[in-house]
Write a structure and sequence with these properties.
The chain has 151 residues and is mostly helical. It is built from 7 helices and no strands. It has helices spanning 5-20, 23-43, 49-72, 76-90, 99-113, 121-132, 138-150. It is globular and about 55 Å long.
């Protein structure tokens, strides 16, 4: 299976949206494609599916933050646009894990690595990031690890 399956799927969906005349979906997919291309140019590499997921996860996080800010400012028109973009981005991300599943991943990683102090926080986060990227809010994961290691 090719490493660029996800990127090809996005380009294919963009073509379908163009033919269907769905301008909003087309434009959102162009944003995704441009972000992927920008990272490839910046790093002079061809992104793997995992790296494409990192780009998508970052875009989703940006949308969530914007939605919160727009809603706080009573700008529902802009919030609605961000929500619609987020829904399209999320179609390419793996399904989100439940709190229980995230907790199980964290516990298993702590047990397998033998981590017992905050000194091993970075090692745990690096190991969990590859497993949870796009499926969990890494800020919450970090907070949970911190709580477990400090107890």
């Amino acid at each position: 299976m090719s490493e660029t399956v996800l990127r090809e799927e996005i380009v294919s969906a963009m073509k379908v949206a163009m033919k269907a005349g769905d301008k909003f979906r087309r434009d959102t997919l162009r944003l995704i494609s441009a972000a992927i291309k920008q990272r490839e140019v910046d790093e002079r590499i061809e992104l793997s599916n995992q790296q494409v997921l990192e780009v998508l996860d970052k875009m989703a996080k940006q949308r969530r933050e914007s939605i919160t800010q727009f809603q706080a400012a009573q700008r529902n028109d802009l919030a609605d646009k961000e929500i619609a973009e987020l829904e399209i981005i999320q179609t390419y991300l793996p399904s989100a894990l439940s709190e229980t599943e995230i907790e199980q991943f964290i516990q298993a990683e702590i047990k397998s690595s033998g981590a017992s102090s905050m000194k091993e926080m970075g090692k745990l986060m690096a190991a969990l990031k590859s497993k949870l990227q796009g499926r969990a809010d890494m800020k919450k994961v970090s907070g949970r690890i911190r709580a477990l290691l400090n107890s």
